[in-house]
Every structure is written in C-alpha cells, then in structure tokens.
Design brief:
Length: 197
C-alpha cells in the first residue's frame, strides 16, 4: 500500500485495466440478466425459447468481444508489474541486503499485486452492476410492459452470480499468473548487484 501512495500513477495504471475489464464483463452480464428477468415477468413466467436463445447468443458474442479487453488488461498488468519491479530494483536489493529472503521479496511483490487487484475488483464489480442496470433501465424503462402496461417501467437489476464468480476467480488467477514474472525478476539479481545500479 505504501508503494501505491509513493507512486500513485503506477498503481493507477495497473488498477484501471482491471477495473475496465471487470466493469465491461459485468455490465453486459447484468444488463442481459436484468432484461431477461423483466421479460420473464412481463410474459407471465415464460420467455419464448427463441427470444431467450437470441438474448443468450447476443450475450455470448458481447462476452467474447469483452474477453479481448480482458486479455489486454492481463498483458498490461504483467507489463506494469514487471516495470514496477525493474524501477524498484535498488529498493528491493536494499531490502534483501537488510535481511529479507528471496521468498519475502516475492511476497512483497505479490501482495502489491493482490492489493491492487482486490481494490480494482471491488470498484469493477460495483461499476459493472451499476452500468448494467442503467443500460437495462435505459433500454426498457420507457416501454410499457404488462401487467400494468404503463410507462415508465422499473427494471430491477438482475445479478447473474455465475458470471460474477467467474470474474472474481479469473481475476484472482490472473493476478497470481501475472505476478510470477515480476517476482522472478525481483529475485534474479543479487542484493549487491541491485544496489550497484
């Protein structure tokens, strides 16, 4: 956390990619689930299978497109963690000279990545649910739907817990995988070599 306070621009760059990826995925998932819930209620409990299939296909296509942004965020996270370790090589060398083991230095880098990821994930989850609900409300809020058949219609946010769990687990795995390369960089150089730079 202290490193994030000393170099907020570095922490912000790491965080923004994760926030954007999580927000985009959840926005489409929540919007789709909210629309499905509203249409199910308006249809009296059963949405026609064709409509359900169309909505699922649309959601799958959108998730595929959003997956590209998740890959870009993953590459950005690895790059920024690696650059951060290279820029802090002297600091990490000093910590090793003061007695930290290679494992402890690895933990420092991993904890920094975990801290940024947890914060980013929390913001992304909140923004994704909010934007998804706003999108569904904007799409169907002015449409008169049964049983009341009066506009405006309130679209309750539908949260698809499956995709939320997948996003949380995928982000956690991404963090662990993304931190492997920087932790190797952090411990590859001896303390004396790092301090000499």
């Amino acid at each position: 956390a202290e490193n994030a306070l000393r170099h907020p621009e570095r922490a912000s760059r790491m965080a923004i990619g994760i926030v954007m990826g999580v927000t985009l995925v959840l926005m489409f998932a929540v919007a789709n689930e909210s629309v499905k819930t509203l249409l199910t209620t308006a249809a009296g409990g059963d949405v026609p299978p064709q409509l359900s299939q169309i909505m699922d296909t649309f959601a799958a296509i959108m998730m595929g497109l959003v997956a590209v942004s998740a890959v870009i965020a993953a590459v950005g996270l690895v790059n920024l963690l690696s650059i951060g370790v290279v820029q802090r090589r002297r600091e990490l060398g000093l910590l090793r000279a003061l007695g930290l083991t290679s494992g402890q230095v690895r933990r420092v880098v991993l904890l920094e990545a975990v801290h940024v990821t947890i914060t980013s994930l929390a913001f992304g989850l909140v923004l994704g649910v909010l934007y998804g609900w706003v999108a569904a409300q904007s799409l169907l809020g002015s449409v008169a739907l049964p049983p009341a058949s009066s506009a405006p219609t309130f679209v309750a946010p539908g949260i698809p817990w499956g995709p939320v769990a997948v996003v949380v687990v995928a982000t956690a795995v991404l963090t662990l995988v993304a931190a492997v390369v920087p932790t190797r960089l952090a411990t590859r150089v001896t303390a004396v070599e790092a301090l000499a730079e």
